[in-house]
Write a structure and sequence with these properties.
The chain contains 5 helices and 36 strands. By secondary structure, it is mainly beta.
């Protein structure tokens, strides 16, 4: 960089200085072009996030840094963030996030050094996106096409969590024990875009995923940004915490008693973590030993020590098969002639050996009867809220007792039937179920739902996928999904439906699997990702739609279409990334 180039950078960078303390020196000294003020620039410093860099501090004690990665072209989105001093110390320099791939990026930095305020401009090349490929794909990552962007949401960054399910050439790993979900394997595609749809970050999954190894297989899922700004997620037999530069904070194997993470890891208000797992060795009451499927919730502390766990086989009813019967020909049910009993022990002893164990919809411990895909923690009473796709939504206390069930009442046994919430309207009048299973005034349960999470407004938001709605057989047309909000009165045992979005879009927005709805308090919006649109069509093509909707309305503020361009690329979730917390 020439001296004159640095001078222009100093005068024109326009970096915000609002975070500087009052009276701080804003004079911009220009470093000599032949005597670098800072150290080297290291691209992809931790080998996991190729679109990041660190400008090393060169042994100097810098402070109060700010970074701006300039948007590409006239419509490009600048990424601008402040860096805490402790982050500078952690990385030994200034972290740079949000580089465009295969591009010479313009990066402006400001920092304090020896009482002076320095502004500099750098040019940093980041390489093209490199991820696992299939021959038929059209692009390295799915394309994100902005359809509408509200001005107040222009600076949004969205992380997409997708799964590449068709991986030619991969070796399949098999357990020696009966059953388990480890053989459900896929490569996670996890990337961040700005509101122009431009890729600004991705996780180099090939550094972590290897289908030939027990500790390397599995789908990378459940990405969440924690209160300290970092990312947590899991993959098969391991779970992780990284910062946005790819620095590993921890990479842990599941405790030996448990196995087969997928779908959800959640930070609690207490600073512990809830993980959705199965078990590695489970003895049923009939003496059979199996690996269980997506039916345990595990709580660990900051060190990875197990604090508690919830065995849903002993809490819910693993023989409730009403919804399983709607999920197509692959569903496995009770053997012919076996009558469902209210006694778990009787059901297990009556089973036929012809009913296989494993990761297929079916009943009883060792089969995919629950399929938990989301967890939340309610700090008000230290309970958990569980979305069991094949059963419904349940709130369960620390004593392992069910507090309520948000699910169609059909098929629940006596004790659990009493926990099913009673639907009410706005005036509190109970809505009676019609003979066909529907309810008046537009109320409906959630069906094969995802992300049953507390909103922070005293309500529960759920993505109601709608597969198996009203226990009807699977069909390819005439379906719909919804984002829905409920208010639950635990003392009265009632539930009121407050709001829904998506029903009016019908088949064009129908996502029978995956997806998310999450309330965003900083903008009073609901982030909604209908992530597997078209999944049940013969082509199995997905055209996910990401929307941000003004809370309490159906007003779409921003919306994006995601075009996979890759056979077998299925959307799972999306989330907003908050840079104010990250650095």
């Amino acid at each position: 960089m020439s001296h004159s180039e640095q001078q222009r950078s100093s005068e024109q960078s326009g970096l915000s200085e609002q975070a500087l303390p009052e009276g701080a020196c804003l004079a911009a000294r220009i470093p000599d072009s032949e005597q670098a003020r800072l150290g080297d620039i290291v691209v992809n410093p931790y080998r996991l996030a190729p679109l990041t860099a660190i400008i090393r501090d060169g042994g100097r004690r810098i402070a109060q840094a700010r970074v701006r990665v300039k948007g590409r072209g006239e419509q490009g989105v600048d990424i601008d963030y402040q860096v805490q001093d402790r982050t500078l110390w952690t990385h030994g320099g200034i972290p740079v996030f949000g580089l465009y791939p295969d591009h010479r990026n313009e990066v402006e930095v400001a920092y304090s050094l020896d009482g002076e305020r320095i502004r500099e401009r750098y040019f940093i090349y980041a390489p093209a996106v490199r991820l696992p490929v299939v021959a038929a794909q059209e692009s390295a990552l799915p394309r994100v096409e902005p359809l509408k962007v509200a001005p107040e949401l222009k600076k949004r960054l969205y992380l997409f969590n997708h799964l590449l399910t068709e991986i030619p050439g991969n070796r399949q790993f098999r357990w020696n024990a009966q059953g388990g979900a480890a053989e459900w394997d896929s490569v996670g595609f996890n990337w961040i875009t700005d509101t122009r749809g431009e890729v600004r970050w991705y996780l180099d999954i090939e550094q972590l995923h290897d289908s030939s190894r027990k500790d390397g297989l599995g789908a990378s899922m459940g990405f969440q940004q924690t209160r300290d700004g970092h990312l947590i997620w899991g993959q098969g037999q391991r779970y992780y915490k990284h910062d946005l530069l790819g620095r590993t904070i921890w990479a842990r194997s599941l405790p030996e008693k448990f196995a087969d993470f997928s779908h959800e890891i959640r930070e609690t208000a207490k600073g512990t973590y809830l993980l959705r797992v199965g078990t590695s060795d489970y003895r049923r009451t009939d003496g059979k030993r199996v690996r269980t499927i997506r039916d345990h919730i595990l709580e660990v502390d900051q060190n990875g020590d197990v604090l508690d766990f919830w065995d849903l086989n002993r809490i819910l009813d693993p023989y409730r098969a009403e919804l399983l019967h709607t999920l197509g020909r692959t569903a496995i049910f009770l053997p012919e002639g076996v009558v469902k009993s209210d006694s778990l022990e009787e059901n297990e002893h009556n089973e036929s050996d012809a009913l296989p164990f494993g990761d297929t919809p079916g009943v009883g411990a060792g089969r995919n009867w629950a399929h938990v895909n989301a967890i939340d923690h309610d700090p008000a009473d230290d309970s958990i809220i569980v979305s069991a796709r094949h059963q419904g939504v349940a709130k369960i206390g620390r004593d392992k007792q069910v507090k309520w069930l948000l699910a169609d009442p059909r098929g629940w046994s006596g004790a659990l039937r009493d926990k099913v919430l009673a639907p009410v309207n706005a005036s509190g009048r109970v809505l009676e179920q019609n003979p066909d299973g529907s309810y008046p005034e537009g109320f409906d349960w959630s069906w094969t739902q995802h992300t049953a999470w507390l909103s922070g407004k005293g309500t529960l938001t759920v993505f109601d996928n709608g597969w198996g709605r009203n226990l009807a057989p699977t069909r390819l047309e005439g379906n719909y999904s919804r984002a829905v909000e409920y208010r639950i009165d635990e003392e009265k045992g009632t539930v009121q439906q407050l709001w829904e979005f998506g029903k009016e879009r019908g088949d064009a927005w129908y996502s029978p699997i995956t997806s998310v709805v999450e309330y965003r308090p900083e903008t009073d919006t609901l982030l909604i990702y209908s992530a597997a649109i078209g999944f049940l069509t013969p082509q199995r093509l997905t055209r996910p739609v990401l929307s941000e909707v003004k809370y309490g309305t159906r007003e779409v503020l921003s919306e994006f279409r995601v075009v996979s361009g890759q056979p077998g690329n299925v959307g799972y979730r999306a989330l907003v990334i908050d840079l104010d917390r990250a650095f």
